[in-house]
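During the reporting period the student researcher (J.K.) took over the structure-prediction task from the postdoctoral fellow and processed the backlog of single-chain submissions. One of the processed entries is reproduced below for the supervisory committee.
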Amino acid sequence: MFPQGFLGTRADLLMDIVIVALLAVVPIVLYNWSLARRGDYARHKLLQVGLAVLLAAVVGLFEFNLRMQGGIFAATSASSYAGTATLDFWIYFHTFFAITTIFIWAGLIVASLRKFPSPPIPGAFSATHKRWGRIGMIWMLVTGVTSLPVYVYGFAL
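J.K. obtained the following structure tokens:
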């Protein structure tokens, strides 16, 4: 469906874009956390919402691409690790965090947009936002980091 990717593996162009995006999320999420810690809530909100919209589009295309290929196991069938416990573990481990991150992050963004004023300032929802924000940040970081072994075992080896 998509042309060959630019990273020199068996992955197609969209898969390469997704892996780069997921790895880029790691420093962006950490930077955004620093914005919130410094009290720059307006930029924190803008970056979070922008990142959510961008990732929703990329992940939506990624899911469409995977379905067109017959799923992740069909997409990685040419790997020397296809059908092994190693690749299967990384696929399931990454997928667990990726799916639960969507619910945590989307839920927190929707609740925050409803409960914080515009421009955002600390309030009654702040403690809940901080707790779920930390959980979401950790989940997002794990999702980004675990995408690398899925990509390497599934498309590079």
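The committee noted the following: DSSP finds five helices and no strands in the chain.
J.K. will present the remaining backlog at the next meeting.
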